[in-house]
Every structure is written in structure tokens, then in C-alpha cells.
Amino acid sequence: MGKSTGFMEYQRIAVLAKPPEIRIGNFAEFHIQPSFDDTVIQAARCMDCGVPFCQSGMVLDGMKTGCPLNNLIPELNDEIYKSHWQGAYHRLSMMNNFPEFTGRVCPALCEAACTCGMNDNAVTIRENELAIIENAFEKGYVKIRSPKKRSDKKVAVIGSGPAGLAVADCLNMYGHNVTVYERDDRPGGLLMYGIPNMKLDKKIISRRIKHMESEGIKFITDADVGKNISPDEIMINHDVVVMCCGAKNPRKIQSIPDNIKGVYSAVDYLTSATRAHIGNVINYITARDKNVVVIGSGDTGNDCVATAVRQKCKSVVQFEIMPKPSVTRPAGNEWPRYPKVLKTDYGQEEAIYKFGTDPRLYQTTIDKVFTDSNNRITRIKTNNGEYFDTDMILIAAGFIGCEEYVSDMFDLNKANIFTCGDMRTGQSLVVSAIADGRKCAAEVNIYLNSGHKK
Q1: Do 228 and 244 lie in a common domain?
Q2: CB distance 262 to 268 below 8 Å
Q3: Could you report the per-residue pLDDT of 7-43, keeping only the tens digit for each?
Q4: Is residue 382 located within the same domain as residue 414?
Q5: Which of 141, 160, 51 is nearest to 420 (CA)?
Q6: Which of 36, 294, 331, 390 could form a disulfide with 318 if both were Cys (CB 3.0 to 4.6 A apart)?
Q7: Are residues 161 and 432 in contact, defined by beta-carbon separation less than 8 angstroms?
Q8: What is the DSSP letter of 356?
Q9: Tens digits of per-residue pLDDT, 181-192?
Q10: What is 35-55 written as a DSSP string?
């Protein structure tokens, strides 16, 4: 398979990005995809190793490594190398419902486990997969699929994030009648409003939703089950309910009292910014001319930094309670484990360009907040005794589970109630949510075909 010596002949060339001074001027995607010819060369670097850890989806030392979807990565790279783009798409779509999403936002667990990465740079697996799916849409390989036979079973999917979309897509292909209920005004959940446009253009999501509708899936928006739609109505009209409601309940910071003005959860802030970008929203949460403190240095915290920079904040710092990671792998973190090393993501790069310093402060959190007579945040003191003028605090410290009214709306002990994605596992990655959705759909299909009654 492939070019057996490609990994010795070619160097990794990762996807290019527009420089910070250009990209911070707008919310457009800023990665520049390589040409198909360049992608063929990068695919040639795949070693076709006997045991492809890249697709293993293992958990080592409590961390995932390798693709949770078990994508057929050596086969995909071989098809690219041979310029069999349609064959590459068919193999990719066997395991991944939405490679156009994961190819943009996944942290590439596959590349961390790439055998080529033991002694050299890993294969550009994520970029190769993105090239496959975008070429497939361009060339018309992505067809409208219809199941050979429709059942009389009706399934309600509550939530249209990555898990909900995966459940809906799979169950529709199994032949069942699927309706997706989304409480926001557009389908997509976390993909639509939790991830900034420069990381995942919302047109990409709309393209997939339109495709799924053409295949027979019904989407109902502004449908907040448990509030403006009765759970009893859902139960009466469907044979199975699959709850894919995410884990949107944010972790609170004990040192920050409730109801202080200028304090927002990261998801609320990012949602507001995206609404302003894609719609005609006048009143939205903005960091313009504000001193911003972001609590948390994960992906969501980084997205907050990047968004605040684009909104022309006055300053931004990012607090991380854990120690600063080393630039080299610590002992015991060898391949194929996910590397616990210092990474500088796009938001931090942009803050460094804008303000001259890395926004991250390690082993740092808020000890005390100060407000004015209107209860608006004005200043904070850290656990290290430093003071920062602060107009806005964005809490990106993770989530503690789904919202209470969501978990209380149905009797989860009933046989025809299923859950999946972050609601079941706790907060995780988009790729993991898709994988969980696929597994859940398989279980629902078994249940529906076994003759169970409502």
C-alpha cells in the first residue's frame, strides 16, 4: 500500500494559517488548505504500519489517544496517495458522519498516536481527512442517501449537537423516522454556537443540515423540551426518545459571588458573539475596550481569548490553576500517549501579537473581586496577590453536567429513553460525541427491531 518510503522522503508540511495581524480583523476561517497535489505528498508519508495506533481510540493513563471513531486512516492515506478520492471518501464516511467538522475542530488524537511521530513529525491526518470531504462535496460524491425501506418507528432526538446529529443520521439510514428538536434558532448545538466562526464556519454546518433534511430528517428549532414543549407530548408521539442535551451547566468559581455584572460563562459569551456575527443582533456581549480575564486555558478558554481580541478588547489575561506544562514530554508520557506538553493555540498567538505577551498565567486563580456601586466588576485580586483592572470575566473552567430541568424532564429509567454524548459522558470532544452518537444509534436500532412497545 502507498509509497513505502514516503515517510523518509517527504517532510510534514502542516496546514498554513493567515498571520495574526490579518486574521484578527474578522471572524472568517483562517486556515489555508493545501492543494490536492500537496495532500497526496503528505499522504505518502503514512507508514502503513502493521498496528495502526492512529485509529485505535484507546485510553492510556486516563487520556484518549488515537481516533475515537476508529477511522480507517492507513487506507484513507493510501487512497489519497493513489488519487482515488472517491474511494477515500467512501472509506471515510463509513466511520465518520461529519468529517468536515472533525477536520476543523478535532485536536487530532490520531496524529498523537501516529507511528511516524515516534521519531519524526506525525502524518497530517486531520488535514488529509478534511481534504477528502471537501473534495467530495466539490465533486458531488456526497449523495442524497435514502434507506431502502422505512420502518413505522418514530424517534425524537433532543438536541442537535454533534452527538444528536450523529444519532439522527444513523437512525435515518437504519430506516426510522427521525425528528430532531433544538431549543436554539438554528440546528447544530455546540457546533453552531459554542465554537467560533473562525474555527468552524457556520456555512459548513448549514450545508450538512440541509443535506440531512434532504435525506428525510426533520429539524424543529426554537423547541425547548421541558419549557415550551411538553415532554409528555414527545413521549406520546414517538417510540423512542434520545436525549443529546450536552453538559452546559458551567462550573462556578467560589470566589466570584452570583449576580455580579460583567461575569459570563464562556458558552454564553461565545454564543452571543456568534449570533452577532451571523445575524442582525444589536445587543450582544462584547469585550470591546474592556480588560478581560478568562478563567481556564483549555480549548474554550482559547476561543474566548481569540474572540475578545477580534472584538478589540483593551487587554486579556488567561488564568490556569495548574502548573505550566513543559515543552518536552515528561517521563511516562511517551508515545502513543497524548502529549502533555505546552501548546500555544491560535488565540494565544493572536494575543501575543496584539499585546506582546502570552496571556496565560499559571497556578493562578481569582481570590477576590471588587465591584462599583452598580455591582459591576472593576478589579480582581489573584491568589498570588496580584491585582488586575477587570471589566469582564469569562468562566471557561469546564462543566459539571447537563442542566437540571433537562435531566428531570423524562423518567430516565424507562426502556425507551436513551442518552448519549456529553450528557452521558460529561464534557468531551466533538469526535467523541459523534462516536457516542453512532454507538447509541446502534443500540436504539436493536431496541426498535426487537418488537418493544411504547
Answers
A1: yes
A2: no
A3: 888 999 988 899 999 999 999 999 998 898 999 999 9
A4: no
A5: 160
A6: 294
A7: no
A8: S
A9: 999 999 999 999
A10: PHHHHHHHHTT----SS-GGG
